[in-house]
Amino acid sequence: MSGAPVLELRGVTKAFGERQVLRGVDLTVREHEAVALIGASGSGKSTLLRCVDLLEDIDDGDVFLDGEVITDPSVQTVAVRRRLGLVFQAYNLFPHMTALQNVVLGEMRAHGVSRREAEERGRELLRRFGLAGREDERPDNLSGGQQQRVAIARAFSGRPRALLLDEVTSALDPELVGEVLDAVRDLKTAGMTMVIATHEMSFAREVADEVAFLHDGRIVERGAPERVLSSPQREETKRFLSRLLEAGRA
Amino acid sequence: MSDSAVISDRRLEREAARRRQSRRGQAIAATSTVVVLGGLAAWILTSPGWPAVRETFFSWSVFKESFPDVLSGFWLDVKLFVIVEVAVLLAGLVVALVRTSRAPALFPVRMLGTVFVDLFRGIPTILLVYLIGFGIPALQLTGLPTDPVVLGGIALGLSYSAYVAEVYRAGIGSIHRGQRDAALAVGLTEPQAMRHVILPQAVRRVAPPLLNDFVALQKDVALVSILGPQEAFRIAQIIQGENFNYTPLIAAAILYLAVTVPLARVVDRIGGGPEGAVR
Question: Smallest Cβ distance to A96: which of B182, B186, B204?
């Protein structure tokens, strides 16, 4: 990959009380690159993404966004979050707002875009993700797949430098997974820089430029999807992938 | 064909059974109502004191005579209720926001909020009315209100603000933290997340308990009478004292009910529906 690094993690550690979740994570994500973050449940994928979006304070190490350190206590967290987008496993849409209002809230309040302009772009984004006609529905009235696509539009609306996707299909019924993956594919085609925590190995293989395997708080193996997923070098990776295979997920 | 005929027979059978059941239910409800209410009525109406009670509590002529006066006093209750309620909704919200904020700079204010709630929720409302209603004027400080209606209103406001603050706080605490995360993730500041995401959901969720406190406040307005203002209960008491007849109190009770019962139905409507209905 030749682009400049957008996100760079160096020696990131994070503990919740006694539980050491991240033990020194190093990761580089270059411009227009999609990195699939794989690993067992509880391996710290979500925590890693939350640390990058500054929803959690890291203990040691540093995270850089476009070469600037963002994990320094003097950095304005709000300004950093405005340059990143995060999509949650459980969608976390605002239930008291319509789909469109969900998408434009950040635009209007965080980015100071006028309502007219934000709504115009919000409609366009919803249309792009196959939600034309659903703009005025509340999340309650949308399927899981539709909700997650609204959430993706919401995260994307602030024109982030990078999108962080936290197992965005894990809460979905199997038949709804495809439509959400289509939305992610669309973003990849548009050149979005992404970190995709996922359990969908075939999707990782297809969309990611690189796969990183998180195990025991560290990235123990990384490389081209084909290499990591088909001929893993490390014992831990082999074991993880064979367990997935048994479960019919790979 | 025969299949559908079989199903249809079963269905008819079921519907008939359901109708029988519902008829039996209605019959039981009607009988028990007649027995309970009739028994209660008979018990009271045949009590040795009933003729006297009917004369002193339910005298139609006294009712007719006193009702306009009691009603004119009741407007003061209504006015006081509306003004205090609005103040309580605002003050309670401010106290709740202060208590839930995490800003280190707000620590002293946060502590004050806790003291405020502990103090005013912990003292009986009637005692607060006394202490503020008689204590503040006794200070003889210029600039402080001396009107008993205002002082009584302040006492009620303090007491209910403390309750309502806790209702709001419970509502804020009940909103899943994922909502805050999502609000911050789209770039909102903490106060913006509170205002646009958490508070609107929290207020909707606590609307029924808030309305419940509305009803309670509506009644407690009568406590202001101990400071002397001529509100419904006070006027009823005066008339009762003049002619040794309690009927004016019944008139006052009816007036309170005329406001609290509709309010209670509103509470039922809002509290009874699914959460999605509270919009």
Answer: B204
pLDDT tens-digit map of A108-165? 999 999 999 999 999 999 999 999 999 999 999 999 999 999 999 999 999 999 999 9
Predicted ipTM of the assembly: 0.94
Q: How far is A106 from chain B (nearest CA, A)?
A: 5
The domain that holds A48 is classified in CATH as: 3.40.50.300
Give the residue on B whose Cα is nearest the Cα of A90. Answer: B178
pLDDT at B230: 85
Q: Give the closest residue to B232 by CA, choosing from B252, B217, B246.
A: B252
Q: Confirm whether pTM is higher than 0.90.
A: no
Number of domains in chain B: 2
A49-99 pLDDT, tens digit per residue, is: 999 999 999 999 999 999 999 999 899 999 999 999 999 999 999 999 999
- Say if the Cβ atoms of B188 and A86 lie within 8 Å: no
Write the pLDDT tens digit of every residue in B76-92.
999 999 999 999 999 99
* Cα separation, B81 vs B148, whole angstroms: 15
Nearest chain A residue (CA) to B203: A96
Contact between chains at A109 and B192 (C-beta distance less than 8 A) = yes
**B234 lies in a domain?**
no
Structural domain boundaries enclosing A240: 5-94+160-246
How far off is chain B from A153, nearest CA to CA, in Å? 11
The residue range of the domain holding B208 is: 75-225
pLDDT band at A250, cuts 50/70/90?
Answer: low
Task: Say whether A94 and B204 touch across the interface (CB within 8 A).
Answer: no
The shortest CB-CB distance from B187 to any of A88, A106, A140 is to: A106
Structural domain contains residue A14 = yes
Total domains in the fold of chain A: 1
